[in-house]
Amino acid sequence: MTAERRNTAALRFVLPAAAAFVLAYVLQTVLDDYVMSIVNFVGINIILAVSLNITNGMTGLFSLGHPGFMAIGGYVTAILTLPAARKAMFLPDLPAWLAGLQAPFVPALVVGGLCAAATALVIGLPVLRLKGHYLAVATMGFLIIVQVLITNWDSVTRGPLGLNGLADLTTVWQVLPWVLLTLYVSWKVKFSSLGRTMIAVREDELAAQCLGVNLFFTRVLSLALGAFFAGVAGGLWAHLVTAITPSSFSLIMAFNIVVMVVVGGSGSITGSLLAAVLFTVLTEAFRPLEEHYGLYGIGEILMALVLILILIYRPGGMLGTREPRFLVDDDG
């Protein structure tokens, strides 16, 4: 790559990133706390959809375990950031080294993401030998196991009561850098030899294997990379809601994230971003209808209907596997 093309590629990321920071500053200036919380949820859903797109879209795995990785990252972050006095009250049976530890928010998020990625590596050893709907059922089983473990591990998670009264640490200035990092890493992966390897595995595993691709390594790596960002999103989510319980991370959440990826286009980073923004805003827009007219679940029904229509009339999603031409090199 020539110096001119490197500069052009850098500008393609730097200019949108700078515009995002300016937009975040303007929004924080003119919007109230409630609307800003919706903006933060939009950012968290972008992280979730784009990171799941690495696993489901680029590599072709159908994973329903993203909320499980969110739960791991969320609980790890919440426990690490809890003050020692609150740990003594909520979790008196914690090990001494953990009970007296209070980590800053960003390092706690990183540790939460790494714990989720390490879990993905462990479960990937047996689970990723499966394919298709067998893999979907296995990852759904992983999510249920995580929920059961959190519910019954009272000494560490406080069981079904969960952890409430968490510090309100998630702001737009915490969410936006992670959104940009997720987009940047996903973009670099997609337009690299690793990304081409992942897409080759998605399109034809046998042909990829004949060309020397290590199928198992590629699949495990894509799962772990997606799990890391899901763990970070879980930590951001917990400290935005300021509470975390086992029921927070359910199959409904898994369905919602998968819908964002499918509607945006499996393999399209831009499509996942747009779908995350669209569905988060629509879900919040329908919330007054649920509260005032008793139409509870209308947001989920809408998402299901949109998914059905997309699968019928545009199976590839809004953008398919493509990205906007002005963001891609001429040979990309």
Descriptive overview:
- This protein has 332 residues and is mainly α.
- The chain has one domain (12-327): ABC transporter involved in vitamin B12 uptake, BtuC (Orthogonal Bundle).
- It is 74% helix and 1% strand.
- It has helices at 3-30, 33-58, 66-81, 84-90, 96-99, 105-127, 132-152, 154-157, 172-190, 193-203, 205-210, 215-241, 251-264, 269-285, 287-293, 298-313, and strands at 163-164, 243-244.
- The longest helix is centred in the N-terminal third of the chain and has 28 residues, at 3-30.
- It is globular, with a radius of gyration of 20 Å.
Main pleated sheet: 2 strands, antiparallel
Strand content: under 5%
| Discrete helix count | 16
Distance between the termini: 12 Å
The secondary structure category is mainly alpha
Radius of gyration: 20 Å
H-E order:
HHHHHHHHEHHHHEHHHH
Poorly predicted spans: none
Q: How would you state the average pLDDT, rounded?
A: 87
How many extended strands?
2
In CATH terms, what is the fold-level topology? Answer: ABC transporter involved in vitamin B12 uptake, BtuC
What is the topology, as strand order, of the major beta sheet? 1-2
Please summarize what this structure is.
The chain has 332 residues and is mostly helical. The chain contains 16 helices and two strands.
